[in-house]
Amino acid sequence: MSLKHLYMETFGCQMNVSDSERIVSMLSDCGFMTVTAPADADMILLNTCSVRGGAEEKVYKRLENLRVHKKKNKKLLIGVGGCVAQHEGDLLLEKFPWIDLVFGTHNLHLLPDMVRGAEQGRRRSETAFIDNDQRLDLFPALSGGFRVSSFVTVMQGCDNYCSYCIVPFVRGREISRRADEIVAEVEQLAASGVKEVVLLGQNVNSYGTSAGDQPSFASLIRQIAGIDGIGRIRFTTSHPKDMSDELIACFEDVPKLCGQIQLPAQSGSNAILERMNRGYTRELYLDRIRALRLTRPGILVTGDMIVGFPGETDGDFEQTMDLIERVRYADLFSFVYSPRPGTQASGFPDSIGKEEKQERLERLLLLQRRLTLEINRSFIGTAQTILVEGPGKRDGQVSGRADCGKTVNLIGGQQLVGSFVDVRIVAAYQNSLVGELI
Ligand code: SAH
Ligand code: SF4
Ligand code: F3S
User: Fold this and answer.
1) 158 CA from centroid of ligand 2 (Å)
2) From CA 193, how far away is CA 190, in angstroms rounded?
3) pLDDT tens string 168-182
4) For 4-126, which CATH superfamily applies?
5) How would you classify the pairing of strands 407-411 and 397-402?
């Protein structure tokens, strides 16, 4: 049987990146190999994001211009999955007659059957939620394939219902994967050469709390740290309200756990945090940061901020700026608030002008750029251990990450990929560092 060509395009967060890997792995068992140009494809799949209006518009634009590929190649199949697919369902088949398949965030396992049907001309949409343990049994396995670092899903969905957020509506209820299955998956990845795992979920530090019979996230980390071949463990994303002392202690006594944490605050104002339904105050947030830094001096903190939440006053925004200065984030992902259908906040009165919001965002980005560069420069002269992951920025360079998560480029050949090397940092830019082998 000749191989069919799959072109896969992924939007949105690491959850989608990881799901796409599982899709590719599953479809390779059905005779598909991935290609890097849509024009070469027998099937194009988009894995989509709807976290902000802008993210959704990007998907619709892309769907519009995929039409030309279908015109050129009548046999081409086009499928849409992920969060936009979950939200829109059948409507997508109506709006875009050139789409063949729509699959929701709980329906990845149906894809092989849906693709076979589509090859016979059957258009189909499947977006039913599976909000019980059966979802875990149906979750496609991740095949080895050589990679240095791999995402490993530990939990799916979200029950937090932050008032601005669409994720609970498009990812369903929070379910923790069984610890023995996670450990088995990591063991298999380690056997295939993976050196680093990134434990993945919308709110990993509430891992196990809804299941009852699963270990805590901290003990899961300790189990994974015991697996030979895995040199580094990271996790993302954490919720400040669930940042337990037990988890913070892992940063002291689990050396494989990297000195980096993504801990989104979303706002520095208690009034806004309350209306966001975040379940913590700025004081609690700063207390968690203090505890983390006491436990692992030098730990790098990254986060997310939302600017211009309904009713955000100048004073609220200044509180956010103040929090950023106090925390000194290594990096921050910040966007203007975007109302999402069905969320609580979409009904909140919003009197701040568009320009005002944009101005606030720009001030915030400027501050963060300064902090990022200051932090990056503070690494100059230090020794760092880099896990080399692939080709670097320039010819003759390779690139990897330091324990703290910073990207480091260094002169070296491809034979270094997959190994740990010690370097001295000799230069620092906005987005990366440069190292020299010691
Ligand atoms: N589960 C993660 C992140 C999920 S969404 C967490 O809780 O941290 C990723 C980021 O998108 C959020 O952290 C938030 O900053 C941003 N976001 C979510 N909804 C948004 C909205 N309606 N408008 C603007 N930004 C939003
Ligand atoms: Fe969205 Fe809040 Fe859940 Fe994160 S924790 S996914 S921001 S609802
Ligand atoms: Fe986007 Fe869905 Fe992730 S909405 S941020 S792809 S969970």
Assistant:
1) 6
2) 5
3) 999 999 999 999 999
4) Methylthiotransferase, N-terminal domain (3.40.50.12160)
5) antiparallel
